[in-house]
Design brief:
7-stranded mixed β-sheet; Flavocytochrome C3, Chain A, domain 1; globular; 8-stranded mixed β-sheet; 16 helices; about 575 residues; FAD/NAD(P)-binding domain; about 20% strand; alpha+beta
Length: about 575
């Protein structure tokens, strides 16, 4: 279906969190909006994510009785993002993030709640908090989308139960205690029965959590404002009037068509995680080509902006947000990528080893820091192998990668080669190409301290963040337990990205800039098309979605207000 009109006030390229926020804000301010999405779904990587939104000193914290201040946030960022580049954008984010949250809740379907116990990733740093800066979307009933529900990108199947049931993180402990706690058993029975009723009328569960709930809430906001969304369409070019962006040229089916944007165009196409040329240009060789982000992020926004003279913000200590991932083949033949974020690495009874069979990192560090350690250990060598090592007790209790806890039969994972199994550590080492004596010594050394809940080598479980990701029921250290009970297992992991940090240079109004720091009239960017305001650092959960929502909001408001404000300080750039 082609767009209904030839002219709109605003055109948004991409229907992820940043793009839908910009569209929802512009529409709520009375502008006519067209969203162009290259896939058949809204949601982008957000729909697969945990949906965490990092906004320091947000209004929800105060309502929950949690204290925070912009001063504390500045202090925290000064050590976790020490580079001076993009200081103006971080200041704009801290100043307007709380405003964005309040405005979205008052004018859209977005509803967020503070995660009271979710520490910043470096809790020992001055200005850090133990919870509240991270906001999560309130659960959403997908039936409210009506027939449009099928346009919401489904969550990764590996993060659902029973073929499509999403689970609130708070319910996971209850599911683990089925049969051992009456309260947990009854709660689990209620959740499962509700899901079964939902499946009678829907191809998957309709109680949505995490990033799927956030994407659904933004989508519902667009539907409520009758925002037109064009699916499965490619933007071929930007239209220009002099030095101003005046619209886009789209390819839909076999036809090209020019559509005008009276106020401006917002680029929110998801970065370049799946563009081989840009990855080769900016990623270290050891990073390889594994990405846990939506496959639609192929650099479209960056290439479009280049035609208008845009510059890239290259002030990034890392070109991407990293996560270790394991690979597998689904039943339909497609390749699966499982991001090891919070479900297994920090739990007691697993270690990570390098190609030599030695530990190289504190396994309970943030996923970004974990991969940075992988890249350092790899010394630039592509395809260097790394493994998670555990025993049968760990695999049963916590699962490993996509293998869920309490899996009775892991034969199919072993048969496919995804999971390597052996009755002895030395035999496991031989199967994965590691010198048996080295891996045996590594496990023995770890076990010596682990039997007492200690990790002398890396200090695992030494911060509130690490302990938060562990198993609170395991004493004395929620992150440390010995690896003792045969059979033993290994799972190969790879450095992967969650999204790109290098992106378009913008000012504090989300306007795309040229290399000389001047704004390109009528062109905006947010989400992963916009360069990271954290310079490729990862201070806390939600540092991608927090700026995405904030600068999507800023772009929408600026477009509605006519688009005239002063420039923010310029940052270092390179030509696209």
């Amino acid at each position: 279906m082609m767009p209904a009109h030839e002219n709109y006030d605003v055109i948004v390229v991409g229907a992820g969190a940043g793009g839908m926020t910009a569209a929802a804000v512009a529409a709520a301010e009375g502008l006519s909006v067209l969203v162009i999405e290259k896939t058949a779904f809204v949601g982008g990587t957000t729909a697969w994510s945990g949906g965490m939104v990092w906004i320091p000193a947000n209004p929800k914290m105060k309502q929950a009785g949690l204290s925070d201040s912009v001063t504390d946030a500045v202090q925290y960022l000064s050590s976790t993002v020490p580079e001076p580049a993009n200081a103006g954008l971080r200041a704009a984010f801290l100043a307007r993030g709380p405003e964005a949250v309040a405005w979205l809740e008052a004018n859209t379907e977005v509803r967020l709640q503070p995660v009271k116990a979710y520490p910043d990733y470096y809790p020992e740093r001055l200005g850090a908090t133990s919870g509240g800066r991270v906001l999560e979307p309130v659960a959403f009933d997908g039936t409210r989308l009506g027939r449009a529900f099928v346009r919401l990108r489904p969550p990764l199947p590996e993060f659902t139960l029973f073929g499509g049931m999403m689970v609130n993180p708070l319910d996971i402990p209850h599911l683990r205690r089925i049969g051992r706690s009456l309260r947990s058993t009854l709660r689990a029975a209620r959740l499962i029965s509700e899901y079964m009723l939902q499946r009678l009328r829907s191809p998957r569960g309709t109680t949505l959590h995490l990033g799927n709930a956030l994407a659904a809430r933004l989508y519902a906001s667009l539907l409520a404002r009758q925002v037109e969304i064009l699916f499965s369409a490619d933007v071929e070019d930007l239209s220009m009037q002099g030095d101003r962006v005046s619209g886009v040229v789209i390819r839909h089916g076999s036809r090209d068509r020019a559509i005008a944007a009276r106020r401006g165009v917002v680029l929110a196409a998801g970065g370049f995680s799946h563009d081989a040329a840009l990855r080769k240009r900016f990623f270290p060789p050891a990073a390889g080509f594994v990405s846990a982000s939506s496959p639609s992020g192929t650099g479209d926004g960056i290439r479009l902006a280049a035609t208008a003279g845009a510059a890239l913000n290259t002030e990034a200590t890392s070109p991407a947000y990293w996560v270790p991932a394991s690979l597998f083949c689904r039943a339909d033949g497609s390749r699966g990528v499982f991001p090891h974020m919070v479900t297994d690495r920090a739990k007691p009874g697993v270690i990570a080893v390098n190609a030599a069979g030695r530990r190289f990192v504190n396994e309970a560090l943030s996923y970004h820091e974990f991969v940075l350690a992988m890249l350092r250990d790899g010394h630039g060598e592509p395809d260097r192998p790394f493994y998670l090592i555990c025993d049968r007790q760990f695999l049963w209790r916590y699962g490993l990668g996509r293998i869920k806890p309490f899996t009775l039969n892991v034969r199919r994972y072993v048969a496919s080669g995804e999971l390597i199994e052996a009755p002895e550590i030395a035999q496991l080492a031989a199967k994965i190409g590691i010198k048996p004596s080295v891996l045996a010594a590594t496990v023995a050394s770890y076990n010596t301290g682990a039997k007492e809940g200690r990790d002398p080598e890396f200090g695992r479980g030494s911060t509130i963040y690490q302990r938060h990701l562990g198993d609170a029921a395991h004493k004395p250290n929620p992150c440390v337990a010995p690896i003792l009970r045969a059979p033993f297992f290994a799972l190969r992991i790879y450095p992967a990205d969650l999204g790109t940090a290098i992106g378009l240079k913008v000012d504090a109004q989300a306007r795309v800039l040229r290399g000389d720091g001047t704004p390109i009239a009528g062109l905006y960017a947010c989400g992963n098309d916009m360069g990271s305001i954290m310079n490729g650092n990862y201070p806390s959960a939600g540092i991608a979605l927090g700026p995405a929502l904030t600068f999507g909001y800023i772009a929408g408001r600026h477009l509605a207000e006519g688009g005239v404000t002063a420039l923010a300080p310029s940052v270092a750039t390179t030509s696209v």
